UniProtKB/TrEMBL annotation:
Gene of this entry: pta
PANTHER family attached to this UniProt entry: PHOSPHATE ACETYLTRANSFERASE
Naturally occurring in which organism (per UniProt): Streptococcus mitis ATCC 6249
Pathway the protein takes part in: Metabolic intermediate biosynthesis; acetyl-CoA biosynthesis; acetyl-CoA from acetate: step 2/2
Family: Belongs to the phosphate acetyltransferase and butyryltransferase family.
Enzyme Commission number(s): 2.3.1.8
Name this polypeptide is given: Phosphate acetyltransferase
């Protein structure tokens, strides 16, 4: 896809280092091979160095990656101390040592937090909760950001759109929805998409009524007040947001209707259904979810992922690290 070629080009000379905690997993190793051969991203794998080295040497990969064995990490005690301090009384030294030795996601997130790597990709063999929980506890959200959200890059040929939040927040209130819109604009720009943000609803400019409509109207106002520089409009039905002729009838004068590139759904039900309809009926490739709002990037794979998914999400994570 052209979008990933652009990401690769933008990463030249950056030497972004991304930790992959499930370092012995075959899909991770195949993605590592491709990352080393095709990009300047440096994969940092957690696991048994001998096993990983043998596998990659057979695949013709001699260097360009790193392996860390959590059981024999020189800075382990420093990591334990830092984790205890970060958790502020919620974790003992013994508890920190135990979780760092037993849970590769905590170890990987600590590498990110301590600045040894720039981001993390996990989830090939772990649940979303197991991947995201340590990120929320340790890396935490950016200043003025109260929650993470999940956006999907939707690609079909040269068409590129961003859908959010389709993965994390079940029923965001108006303030949360505004925050999701603003963070989605940041993600869109990273992908080379000029954000024109449509706040979606079953109503367009007062054509319908209900609590959900009121929420979207209020979210649009909040987002405008926080970021007056962004092109954002709502409430808009999808046809008014996407189709110029419909926009001219339903939302004349809108600077977003009919030309939206970022679509913010009122809740996860609509978002999840919407991106899957676009994927299955519309022929779009859905890439993500891309987690938004963290101080440093951490992204979650599906346990049903393939090596191509790992490769792409690692590129995205590296791009987030550079973009921030």
């Amino acid at each position: 896809m052209e979008v990933f070629e652009n990401l690769k080009a933008n990463l030249v000379g950056k030497n972004a280092r991304i930790v992959l905690p499930e370092g012995e997993e075959p899909r991770i190793l195949q993605a590592t091979k491709r990352l080393v051969k095709e990009t300047e991203v440096v994969p940092v794998l957690l696991g048994n160095p001998e096993k990983i080295k043998i596998y990659l040497e057979i695949e013709g990969v001699m260097d360009g990656y790193e392996v860390i064995d959590p059981q024999h990490y020189p800075q382990f005690e420093e990591m334990v101390t830092t984790l205890v301090e970060r958790r502020k009384g919620k974790m003992s030294e013994e508890g920190a040592r135990k979780i760092l030795l037993e849970d590769v996601n905590y170890f990987g997130v600590m590498l990110v937090h301590m600045g040894y790597v720039d981001g993390m990709v996990s989830g090939a063999t772990h649940s979303t909760a197991a991947t995201v929980r340590p990120a929320l506890q340790i890396i935490k959200t950016r200043p003025n950001v109260s929650r993470t959200s999940g956006a999907f890059l939707m690609v079909r040929g040269t068409e590129r759109y961003l859908f959010g939040d389709c993965a994390i927040n079940i029923n965001p209130d108006a303030e949360a929805l505004a925050e999701i819109a603003i963070n989605s604009a940041i993600t869109a720009k990273m992908f080379g998409i000029e954000p024109k943000i449509a706040m979606l609803s079953y109503s367009t400019k007062g054509s319908g009524f209900g609590e959900s409509v009121d929420k979207v109207v209020e979210a649009t106002k909040i987002a405008h007040d926080l970021r007056p520089d962004l092109e954002i409009d709502g409430e808009l039905q999808f046809d008014a947001a996407f189709h110029p002729e419909t926009a001219a009838l339903k939302a004349p004068g809108s600077n977003v209707a009919g030309q939206a590139t970022v679509f913010i759904f009122p809740g996860i039900e609509a978002g999840n259904i919407g991106y899957k309809i676009a994927e299955r009926l519309g022929g779009f490739a859905a890439v993500g979810p891309v987690l938004q709002g963290l101080n440093k990037p951490v992204n979650d794979l599906s346990r049903g992922c393939n090596s191509d998914d790992v490769y792409k999400l690692t590129l995205i994570t590296a791009a987030q690290a550079v973009h921030q």
